[in-house]
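Below is a filled-in request sheet from our internal design queue. Each sheet records the structural input a requester submitted and the sequence that came back. We keep these sheets so that new team members can see what a complete request looks like end to end.

REQUESTER: design group, bay 2
PRIORITY: normal
MODE: inverse folding
CHAIN LENGTH: 109
BACKBONE (tokenized):
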């Protein structure tokens, strides 16, 4: 499972239309369709009913909250990383984080 597949899945959940979901995701409709198909193969079943209208299947409904959480966690991780990169000590020391406690530790460069 790849992050772009998760984001395309969530866009399709929101839009309920492959063309609009592709536009929202900034990709072509065939690229989105292929990614959704690959995700469905990996998960072992259809995530969307295609006709008469695009709708989530039982598998799609089941997997949606998990994939939403994954996307949210990825966004939060990116924001935390960007915030950390933006921290620039004024005294010339390198800033590291204690991975267990999550507290800042300073060491001389």
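RETURNED SEQUENCE:
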């Amino acid at each position: 499972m790849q992050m772009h597949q998760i984001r395309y899945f969530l866009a399709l959940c929101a839009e309920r239309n492959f063309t609009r979901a592709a536009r929202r995701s900034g990709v072509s409709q065939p690229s989105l369709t292929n990614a959704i198909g690959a995700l469905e193969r990996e998960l072992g079943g259809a995530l969307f009913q295609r006709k008469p209208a695009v709708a989530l299947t039982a598998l799609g409904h089941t997997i949606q909250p998990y994939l939403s959480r994954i996307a949210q966690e990825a966004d939060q991780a990116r924001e935390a990383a960007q915030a950390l990169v933006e921290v620039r000590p004024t005294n010339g020391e390198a800033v590291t984080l204690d991975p267990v406690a999550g507290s800042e530790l300073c060491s001389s460069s």
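SHEET NOTES:
- The first helix runs from residue 3 to 15.
- The beta strands are 48-49, 55-56, 94-97, 104-107.
FILED BY: M.R.
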